[in-house]
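note to self — DONT lose this again. spent like an hour looking for the file last time. sequence + predicted structure for the chain T wanted, 470 res
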Amino acid sequence: MTEHKVIILPNVSDDENKTLNILLEQLAAKQSRNFLRASYYDGKHAVRSIGSIIPPQFYKLGIVLGWSAKAVDTLARRCNLDDFVWADGDLESLGARDLWDANFLGTEVSSGLTSSLIHGTSFLVTTRGDESVGEPAALIHAKDAMNATGTWNTRARRLDNLLSITSRDDEGEPTSLALYLDNLTITAEKDGSTWTVDRSEHPWGVPAEPLVYKPRVGRPFGSSRISRPVMSLCDQALRTVIRMEAHNEVYTIPDLWLFGADASIFKNADGSQKASWQMVMGRIKGVPDDPEREGEANARADVKQFPASSPEPHILSLKQQAQLFSGETSIPLTSLGVSDTSNPTSADSYIASREDLIAEAEGATDDWSPALRRTEMRALAIANGLSEIPAAWSTIDTKFRSPVYLSRAAQADAGAKQLAVVPWLSETSVGLELLGLSDQQIRTAQAERQRANGRQILDRLTTPADGNPA
């Protein structure tokens, strides 16, 4: 457990300072495990040398394996937030598009979901922007579990508080932080050894929501996608790759045994020993006899060769570890780069091969949706100058892209069959979505249709009853 330095902020109550240091201790307690998982994801975790068979220098080559990142990214790429929808109203009238664009919300949410998969949870924090310096009216920021933590209220299903570390010094100690309490935000910055504190009251409780992956009873902040079995299998596979590298470097060169030869062929002109690579790579066309052994039975130089060993055992071991990793993470074996089988050719077989991953993506987006909905409603209320979220906004919901990848032809065919059963859907944006059109294409098509209808109305108004232009 990592120790933390106690921080006492000026002009802050004892209870507030106590809450701050409890959260700092909570953040420090998880720091080593969070850093370890981040190292696995970034490919910076060095596997320990096990045994004495492989020369130690091969463990210093910086060989890495990207399976941990693959476990996170393969799932994250199937969990795409396309937009928010409001069946009972018009989100555009509330400034939802401006909020999305000003906060780069698609990218911000995507980074938050990725951090959630790495550490088990991340946080979306909503604050009022400073429009005088060009900030949007409402700000949404994602924070990872290495720099933010809070207390979850299991009865109210919300955070009682949140600590966000916004900057650190070279030793990793906080130099800037924000403490979110009920209807109160305390920000503090450190200049030298002095803390400057600012207090800001607001009506939004604790304006933050946790994005939790796989929450369960007793673990409200969920579990990491980079689990202990995943880390163990990555270490096993990485050791196999290191052994294979050593094998390619050393054992693929045939063993040669030389009998009855003069040892001078292994020395330089000055009598010093030749480098081993010169002896291995040298092309020896003739080997002189050893004059001191003249007359003996094996006086003539004789070369015996043993064939090089095959790397096949290492390859088979890596494949077996990939199969275990695939079963643990629901990632298709073909995605790990060690399978020689072809990809499924039909749409049904393709979906069947990824059924577990699709189910995992659907479950993850279901768990993330409530936090995203709350964040969107709070941000819209702040942007519109409200002090509370209207009850009518409760139907605002997330719109995630389907985790099932379908071809445009297959999607259009399925949509056409559904529209044939319910023809009036073709007049709505939902019907166009069923045909596989993107949001941009839908908006463009509807705008062009409105312009065409406007021209038709104008033509009718400017044409007299006799049919001749006015």
